[in-house]
Amino acid sequence: GNLQQALVCFEKRLVVAYELTDLSSKAAAYGELGTLHKALGNYEQAIAFFEQQLSLAKECSDRENEIEALSGLGIVNQKMGEYSKALRHHEEELRLATELRNQKSQARAYHNLGMTHELLGNYEQAIVCQEQNLNLASHMGDRLAKTQAYSCLGRTYHALENYPHAISFLKQGLAIAEVLKRTEDEARMRHRLGMSYLANKQLEAAQEE
Questions:
Q1: CATH code of residue 50
Q2: End-to-end CA distance of the chain, in Å?
Q3: Which of 15-24, 28-37, 163-172, 184-193 has the lowest mean pLDDT?
Q4: Domain limits at 129?
């Protein structure tokens, strides 16, 4: 059902994208198509649409659309295991977001970079990026972004076998997830917290999670 609705939406947006004459609007429409294909797991199609978005955005000097396209491309590169490409796209995403002083886009770019570094096993770089993400999210009062940053930091510190730090960050993320009623995030962090307690030989605490 949802897949069929998504495909109907895709067909409508495709018609709209071709008919639009304003380049910024056309770029945004291609970006929506890229996001839809990304969600459906159609990564090659997603890349094609994000590249069209990026090209149009550059043509009309629309930095916001450039940032969106670079973010989308980097995330798809991550999912396809093309981490070097993902890093290049997210570094450019961060550069543009910083130039525009767009804190929300900066925070997302740091998150994306942190995720890519984590996947590459560059844990120290991942921590630096997620700490920047956390600082920006705190400054903006973005609790969802803070939860994601705490979760990533907890996971990365666990990978580094620094279990006390992992536990500290996961507990902070869990507290926010509970307030926001983010049940999936809450379940995921409880699982990670239990694993960190277990690795830290805190068996009673692990059983509680």
A1: 1.25.40.10
A2: 35
A3: 15-24
A4: 107-208
